[in-house]
Design a protein that fits this description.
heterodimer; A: 339 residues; mainly alpha; MetI-like fold; 3 domains; 12 helices; 79% helix; B: 292 residues; alpha/beta; Rossmann fold; 6-stranded mixed beta sheet; 4-stranded antiparallel beta sheet; 10 strands; 22% strand; transport (chain A); cell membrane (chain A); transmembrane (chain A); membrane (chain A)
């Protein structure tokens, strides 16, 4: 039973390739598991190797002003370099705080009433800091977008009148590249968001709003379509048992539209992530996008390899975000969404 | 016979681009308490529309539906509906589907324990207790329809409305469910309106069969009382002279008096319909049915 549950959760969470490995460990129909392992693990692994080989060969043939295009090996060592830099920076930060504490201790020993301060370390953000910033930003923008888009979508789905009224606005706003909004957002935020002790930095808010502006639409439209297309008989059941308006929405409309809402959310988070990187590059807002731009401007012999590390990272994170939404969808919504 | 449910001279118009379309014309039907009525007719003749008006899901343009001397024009649990495609909420388990209706209908009238007991009792009636924790997606079509019936029965309706409840099921499953329905009916003696296009089903289950003319402006054509003793057994009835006589009467109505050629028939008035040249298959069916 425990094994069954584990296997079930692994498939739901997108780790289907681990299923035959676990079954094999229990020596359950080993022949079949062997075939499954070949299909789910060996085959993709082989494709990755082929890809790396092509990349490696092609890279050695491309010469740029910054040296030859980085192959997989160079990129891997650049990645480990970035990790070393991260560790070194953390050590420096720790040493910095340690020094302050030591100094304060000495101060307090001399004079117990002395005012002591701990200053924040202001070293440059490491690669991992940039990843973290980007993730926080994309989730903030995505969350705000969802909070706005889902209720509006539900309202549009419930009321054909409202839907007809605002459809043109949505249709026109939807295709606008968020990068066109970026200058406006920047100006408005710096005019409106004035605070002596800001809880969030302006750049963070700019990036988050830009993400919000773009990833609202898929969620909104999918929610509206999902709510509008609920099986009429289900609504009639609600009418026969005389559910109130509010219960009708919470017990029938929302659960029925949940698969569509999740499809919208998944698309939203995916494009939110793409948009964020572009916005960070353009606006020089902290995050992975800025890292890429800085490396490009830096133009050292290592730059291209470091940018490739960022490219791979962005891809991996996008993939993880998508799997995360997919898993959430499977766990919460009632339909069996395909991969 | 005292009238329990009075479908009184109802007509309905649907708006179309070319003006109102009269789907039903003065449908008039008086139903006694505990009676089992089948509505039969060709597809598109407005059987479902009658049911939806009784359910309160549609509003009649003229006429009224009177239940226990009170006019009804809103949907309500006193006229529970079993829909053709079961209409269970796919995200709720079998138990929760019935519970949702019970909780809403008996709000403030039943305690938590009573609600649980009542849900379980009704699932027991349709022999679905074993699957109460399953989701609709995990059970067969016949089982889903059983749950749909349990949900409707659990509302303790004055009239149970069934819209081709077994239409989407295979013949064997359908027979099982018909038997189950007859058993439940023997126990609860509900007032039922069943829509069907299955002649055997209508004769087997009904006290009266109401045959509807073809649309537009469809109305009640003939009413046939089925005086077969209950309980009825499908196997013994197969050789029963009365049973075959009733079957033949319904078939005659459907395939001769209301024969529907592929086109044009729907635009003709009922009295203009004549025996079409193309109704050979109907005749064959009739001969088989009457043993001729």
């Amino acid at each position: 039973m425990l094994k069954q549950n584990t296997l079930h959760y692994l498939s739901v969470a997108g780790f289907r390739w681990m299923v035959p490995v676990i079954k094999l460990a229990f020596w359950e129909n080993p022949r079949e598991q062997g075939q499954e392992i070949v299909r789910l693990i060996a085959l993709p692994l082989f494709a990755i190797l082929v890809f790396l080989a092509i990349w490696s060969t092609a890279a050695s043939k491309i010469d740029t002003s910054l040296g030859s295009f980085p192959g997989p090996g160079v990129v891997a060592s650049a990645a480990s370099g970035l990790y070393q830099e991260h560790l070194a920076e953390r050590e420096k930060a720790e040493a910095f705080y340690q020094r302050q504490e030591d100094r304060n201790k000495v101060k307090l020993a001399k004079n117990p009433d002395a005012e002591v301060k701990i200053r924040d370390y202001t070293g440059k953000p490491t690669y991992f800091d940039q990843i973290f910033t980007s993730l926080i930003t994309v989730f903030t923008g995505f969350l705000v977008a969802s909070i706005i888009a889902i209720p509006i979508g539900i309202a549009c789905g419930l009321s054909p009148l409202l839907n007809t009224a605002i459809a043109p606005i949505i249709q026109i706003l939807k295709p606008v590249s968020p990068l066109a909004w970026l200058p406006l957002v920047t100006m408005v935020v710096s005019a409106v968001y004035v605070s002596d002790d800001p809880a969030f930095s302006k750049s963070f808010i700019n990036s988050a709003i830009t993400v919000t502006l773009y990833c609202m639409w898929p969620t909104l439209i999918n929610t509206a379509v999902g709510v509008a297309n609920i099986d009429k008989d289900l609504i009639n059941v609600g009418r026969v048992i005389q559910l109130g308006w509010f219960t009708q929405v919470t017990k029938i409309a929302i659960p029925a539209a949940l698969p569509m809402i999740f499809t919208g959310l998944r698309i939203s988070l995916g494009i939110g992530w793409m948009v964020l990187i572009a916005a960070e590059m353009l606006a020089q807002n902290p995050g992975l996008g800025k890292f890429v731009w800085d490396e490009f401007q830096n133009g050292s012999s290592e730059s291209l390899a470091r940018i490739m590390v960022a490219v791979v990272t962005i891809g991996f994170i996008g993939f993880i975000l998508d799997s995360f939404m997919h898993t959430l969808h499977k766990m919460i919504a009632h339909d069996d969404a395909g991969a | 016979m005292s009238t329990y449910l009075d479908i009184s001279q109802i007509s309905i118009d649907f708006p179309t681009k070319t003006g109102p379309f009269r789907a039903l014309e003065k449908v008039d039907l008086k139903i006694a308490r505990g009676e089992f009525i089948s509505l039969i007719g060709h597809s598109g003749c407005g059987k479902s529309t009658v049911l939806n008006i009784v359910a309160g899901l549609y509003q009649a343009t003229e006429g009224a539906v009177v239940l226990e001397s009170k006019e009804v024009n809103q949907p309500g649990p006193d006229r529970a509906v079993v829909f053709q495609n079961h209409s269970l909420f796919p995200w709720l388990t079998v138990y929760q589907n019935v519970e949702l209706a019970v909780k809403q209908v008996f709000k403030g009238r039943k305690s938590k324990a009573e609600i649980r007991h009542w849900v379980e009792y009704n699932l027991g009636l349709v022999q679905m207790s074993h699957a109460s924790h399953k989701l609709p997606g995990e059970i067969s079509g016949g089982m889903k329809q059983r749950v749909g019936i349990a949900r409707a029965l659990a509302m303790e309706p004055k009239v149970l409305l069934m819209d081709e409840p077994f239409g989407a099921l295979d013949a064997l499953t359908r027979a099982h469910l018909q038997d189950a329905l007859m058993e439940i009916q023997a126990e609860l003696n509900n007032t039922v309106i069943l829509i069907t296009h299955d002649v055997d089903e209508a004769v087997l289950l009904s006290d009266r069969i109401v045959m509807m003319t073809n649309g537009p402006a469809a109305t009640v054509g003939e009413i046939l009382s089925i005086d077969l003793p209950r309980p009825r057994e499908r196997l013994t009835l197969a050789d029963n002279v009365d049973y075959n006589h009733y079957r033949a009467a319904v078939l005659t109505f459907l395939h001769q008096k209301q024969a529907k050629s592929d086109h044009k028939a729907s635009t003709k008035k009922p009295h203009e319909l004549r025996l079409a040249d193309t109704n050979k298959p109907a005749e064959v069916a009739l001969k088989k049915a009457t043993g001729a």
